[in-house]
Amino acid sequence: MSGKLNRRDFLKALGLGGTATLAGCDMPTTVTLEEGKEDVVSYLLPEEYVIPGVGVTYASTCTQCNAGCGVHGRVREGRVLKVEGHPDSPINAGKTCQMGQALVQAHYNPDRIKSPMVREGGSLVPATWEKAQALLDEKLGSKANLAAGRVAWLTGTVSGHQRALITNHLESVGSNHHFAVEVVNTNVWSAVSRDMLDDPQPQISLDKAKLILSFGADFMGTWQSPVHFAGQFSRMRTAADRGALIQVESKMSMTGGSADLWVAIRPGTEGILALGLANYLIANGVSSASLPGDARDKLAAYDMQKVSNATGVSTATIERIGKALKNRAPSVVLAGAAVEGQVNGYEAVSAIMLLNVMLGNIGQTILPSGKFPLQQLEAKVGGTRDLAAFAQAAAQKQFDVVLVHGANPVFTAPASLKLDEALASVPFKVVMTQFPDETAMMADLVLPVSSTLEDWGTHVAAYQAGASNISIQQPLMEPLYDQTRGFGDIVISMLAMRNAAQYGSFKDYYGYLRNVFANLKGAGATASLSPDEFWNNSLQAGMIKIDSTPRKHTVKASIAAIDAPAADANFPLTLIPSARMGLFDGRHANLPWLQESPDQIAKVVWGSWAEIHPSTASKMGITHGDVIRIESEAGGIEARAYLTNTVHADAIAVPLGQGHTEYGRYAKGRGVNPLKIVKAAVDAKTGELALFATRVKVSKTNKNEIILRLGHSDTQHGRRLVRTVSVDALKRTKGA
């Protein structure tokens, strides 16, 4: 070996080699080891039960979405290293999704807000907690001049004692304005279930079904409780009588990729296909006794040829689906976001639920849920109706103070709502967040909250899988930054400003929870426990089982006419702003693990793309990687064209998650946000925004860019590289 090695290079290579390697991941090569140094504090006084090198596991709750999965966090020498699913959780039974796995990266994210910030001279500047508390006291304290109803909370889906504290705070300031915002939701499905079954969240048993017919419900990716349903689906697939999945949608989802039959349908016509299938079933001997008296006449209008013309689904495929529904009982029929997000979404979901009624699925695969007894802790489920309502109320200057937590409405709101302008008109805006998102950057006061792995909390999932329970969230380690605060701690301090007699005695949220837990003890074994024993047992279990009152389904079927969306020559395509496991609605775009996790269908990483059918692209002269402009009446975006057969020819799909203008180094300035060009139409029955009803036109630009994706080709180019075998043949030859 020849050549010389100077002292600095020698130290980089040999001395502190681990540090040099880490520095190389995050710093340019021009940064020396001395400039990149950091303090390393030895763990000299560990807890007495800590054994160096041996991990300890604690139970907690994942908050990466609203499913409420239980987790076990592995902690070693005071640091969280990994999270896995809680094996005793009735929701996820020991499993986690990739978003849950990334919970650790959210905790250690370098872009976390580390101290309060206040707006001075038009800019947000760091401040002390004393200054932040003084400002809160001035605007919200007992001496603040607050008119009734002039304070509003804006959150994501919230439950447990966090919801109870928010409700109590609103009461203390004489208001009832709590807006819960979620772009990815199942509120229309819940409304139909409530009206037709008297149960807003019926239990769904996929593992008892011989056939699943899903109209765009991505139950393995983003629909309700994905980890729970993925487990049920796995059991259905591995049963002796293997169940089948038919997925009907305009853009293939993660669930659609696992279907036995994937059916591309013209956007906005799913309800028509459901009514056509109902007509087919009646014509082929399925009882209509459970339907209204005029059902046969109403359904007769949806003959097979008419339905085929409207939906673009062949009559042979419609008949194939109808036969499968008739012959494979029990079945279950589901409706997803693309159906709910139409201007007639309620009627379309009602038509889909009608199939469950006709097929006798109610009571077999769709079961009554339990009525949760503690209403003050139930989930306040977010939706887009509240997003639009808040934008309107703020624009009308109805609020003096707005408090935001667990939501980023400036990012998720369509531009047509003008929410950013409305929010700017609010005199005092407080955002409690971990990260510098778009909403936080518009605030007058930003309060840094602890991560999920540092904070206390209780959660009640909106979809209760199995027995009702309260999931417990507990800190798995000491806070990384001493200037962050738990969300419950912040609300307790604000309540103490208004009602010191009741809340002033609580030093923090932990003290509050210890006090209220004494009232959660049930009958039986827990009744004999002391408060300390009940508390410790609950933390070890990670949950508290709650006796719920069983519901009874009362079927009230109805049929409403559904028409196909009118054609529009100026805007010929339908925009599909699709959510996906990973970045979800954009809340995880600041996590590089999830940025680099390939899209489940397109396999694309980092950035945005637009999925367009090859036949549609050919007519426009668009090739793979061309940068195209997608325009609606509300605005335009540009994205790279990804030609694929997994989208209907009348649709163009742009995944959600990208397009942040803030939110840290991994998210800011990357890709586009399709929600911004969504036209603010609504479902007339529920008031939810029709996010899947926007018509767009597409034009070419003069640019072509490489699309980064895992793998190069989706075809075998006529070569038999992968051999396939039918299920029947596999069963005949298995083990031979």
Written account of the structure:
With 736 residues, the chain is α/β, with parallel strands linked by helices. It has 3 domains: 117-180 and 374-549, Rossmann fold; 187-369, Dimethylsulfoxide Reductase, domain 2 (3-Layer(aba) Sandwich), CATH 3.40.228.10; 573-704, Barwin-like endoglucanases (Beta Barrel). It has 24 helices and 27 strands. The chain has a 7-stranded mixed sheet with strand order 5-4-17-16-15-6-7, sandwiched between helices. α6 packs parallel to α18, α7 crosses α14 and α9 crosses α12 (315-327). It is globular, with a radius of gyration of 27 Å. Mean pLDDT is 90; it is low at 8-31.
Short précis:
By secondary structure, this protein is of the alpha/beta class. The chain is built from 24 helices and 27 strands. The strands form seven sheets. The protein has a seven-stranded mixed beta sheet, with helices on both faces.
Task: Write down the Rg.
Answer: 27 Å
- The low-confidence runs, each spanning 5 or more residues with pLDDT under 50, are 8-31
Query: How many domains is the backbone divided into?
Result: 3
Q: With helices defined by DSSP (H or I, 4 residues minimum), what is the helix count? A: 24
- What's the overall average pLDDT, rounded? 90
Shape: globular
Instruction: Please give the alpha-carbon distance between the first and last residues.
Output: 58 Å
Structural classification? alpha/beta
Query: What is the CATH third-level topology name of the largest domain?
Result: Rossmann fold
Which CATH architecture of the largest domain would you pick?
3-Layer(aba) Sandwich
Q: Assign the CATH class of the largest domain.
A: Alpha Beta
How large a portion of the residues is in β-strands, by DSSP E? Answer: 15-25%
Strands across the major sheet, in which order?
5-4-17-16-15-6-7
Helix percent band: 25-40%
How many β-strands, per DSSP?
Answer: 27
Largest sheet: 7 strands, mixed
